[in-house]
Amino acid sequence: MSRRRTFDPYTLSGALERERVAYVVIGGFARVVHGSGEVTQGLDVVPSLRDENLRRLARALEELDASQPALAERLAAGDPVTARTRAGELRIVPEPWGTRGYDDLRIRANRENLGRGTRPAVASVVDCIRMLDASEREPDAERLRRLRRMMELERRLVPHRGLGLER
Question: How far apart are CA 44 and CA 102, in angstroms?
């Protein structure tokens, strides 16, 4: 019987940060950071596909006891890779639905302080919506509806941030 590994996003992102991996957090964890009430048991990331970054990613996976043979080739082929690490599941997605990958997502991503010195780049709410909108999975339709509603409520509740030129 396989024992389920406890999800520890601090350990996962810490290993990626120590190896200086360029990546953006997407998926359920990104939505949770933005205030979604869903529960997630893994971390989904979009890495830069540059050779040196993929070498760093491979070293981080080794540190997490989850080396992935032929990682660069699998990601270059567009295949998502799921690594089962000692800190839970890490899903590496080269090009999420509705995006052009890392360079597309990093433009609007923000570094979010998660505590314990962890500040990963997290996909923007707009990009989270874009990815859900491009998904054809049944559960994503409800997630999309809730995220759009959350964004609409935030627009109504947060005063417009102008340039401060109004008097």
Answer: 12
Contact call for residues 5 and 82 (beta carbons, < 8 A): no
67 in Cβ contact with 58 (< 8 Å): yes
Nearest to 45 by CA among 88, 101, 118: 101
Kindly give the confidence (pLDDT) of every residue in the chain, 167 residues in length, as a single tens digit, with 9 standing for 90 and above.
455 568 999 999 999 999 999 999 999 999 999 988 899 999 999 999 999 999 999 999 999 999 888 888 999 899 899 999 999 999 999 999 999 999 999 999 999 999 988 999 999 999 999 999 999 899 899 999 999 988 888 788 776 655 554 44
Spatial separation of the C-alpha atoms in residues 16 and 142, rounded to whole Å? 31
- Note whether 158 and 152 are within 8 A (CB): no
DSSP string, the chain: -PPPPPP-HHHHHHHHHHTT--EEEEHHHHHHHTT-----SEEEEEE---HHHHHHHHHHHHHTT---TTHHHHHHTT--EEEEETTEEEEE-SS-TTS--HHHHHTT-EE---BTTB--EE--HHHHHHHHHH---HHHHHHHHHHHHHHHHHHHHSPP---S---
